[in-house]
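Memo to structure team: turn this sequence into structure tokens by end of day. - J.P.
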Amino acid sequence: MPQSVFFFGNGKAEGTRDMTSVLGGKGANLAEMTNLGVPVPSGFTIACSECIDYLNSGKYSDRLRAEVEGNVARLEKETGKKLGDPRNPLLVSVRSGAPISMPGMMETILNLGLNDRAVLALAEQSKNPRFAYDSYRRFIQMYSSVVLGVSGHDFEHLLKAKRMTAGAATDADLGENDLRNLTEEYKALVRNRTGADFPRDPIVQLWGAIEAVWRSWTLKKAKDYRKVNNIPEDLGTAVSVVSMVFGNLGEDSGTGVAFTRNPSTGEKRFYGEFLLNAQGEDVVAGTRDPLDIDEMAEKLPDAYKELIGTQERLERHYSDMQDLEFTVERGKLYLLQTRTGKRTAAAAVRIARDMVNEGLIDRVKAVLRVPAAHLDQLLHPIIDPSIRATPLTVGLPASPGAASGRAVFDPDTAQQRAQAGENVILVRDETTPEDFHGIVAARAVLTARGGMTSHAAVVARGMGKCAIVGAKDIHVDLERRSFSVNGKEIVEGE
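Reply from structure team:
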């Protein structure tokens, strides 16, 4: 049988960046960075094909179980720790990673391997009980939401209540006893919602997490993302199991996300954000205000210096702008991911041009780096990227651009108001050919239903007009001539 699990660690990996179809983008790049000598925590990656086999059959093979558990033993030997050991426990993250990047669309679980005994060992080893219980409550919340189907809102409610009773402004202000009590509340919640105790056996936890990552390939948000970006349904996701490094060990630890160049403008300037005493989810979740990456030079100077050198090295190696995730554990830098960074159309053009001038790529490759759709975007108005506003809701980006105007709810009104000199936006559940004159008159179109090939999308694209379709959270009320979303109502003329 072909190999299904690929190990990386101690400067050697059983994969390369050319194996994205097998290892997914994340797994292939973890292997590549390991081979380059970039500091990466040890781990292993389960091939994408196993995801498809599991989704088709509803189970995994005894062969795969044996291969995974063999690599767990190898990881334990590499790290000198053991899953479930009451004295020196190994904790891992379980991460998704498709062959084509789908950022945020599938699941990740951190701190796996914790239980009531392991958390005591973690507290003793770190000499930091607060850190240990912070990691435990995070694990219970994440695992229960992703694997056991317990609503994340229930945990957030308990966490918010704990902050209020403790007088804590943020999660980072909660003390050891607060977190210890919160952990017990979380376990009680799981028991109440599922009728069973939270799983204590780390191997049971591991397989529950692996299966949940595989199932996340079928989540609606993942399917929608693949549809919008023309990603085939039969690729599947790899699963990377990586030994944990901790950014929440104190003020000499932290985590961040950074780009080797500015993804909005293309400027050749290291760009990103980080948090002290935090784990990666804190940066992307927006629960705390992150610091600009430049401030890391003062807060964690040695790790920052190494990060600057590493990001330059990775950009040269890949000959493209990179999107990095990193953690600093007690002053030591670890790279958790690198991938080709998403960028705006304007940034794509500037980066391609600059990289030709820097000798990183040739002119042919530069042209190929700018998709035709990006060129189309450059001809449309855009929202000022310096503006920080909270969106009402989200939908599918059917036709690029930006527009502002007064809301109208039928094509005749759109035409009348436009002829009177007003800028209008046509809002409909969905459009039909009978709405064509309203689309012509409007500055933009917003629909509650429909996909990227719906009438509104096709017509608006053909006209070069901004459109957002399938904004499923809005409720259009034609009688009241308004729409509502997330507790806010927009009436005609606003």
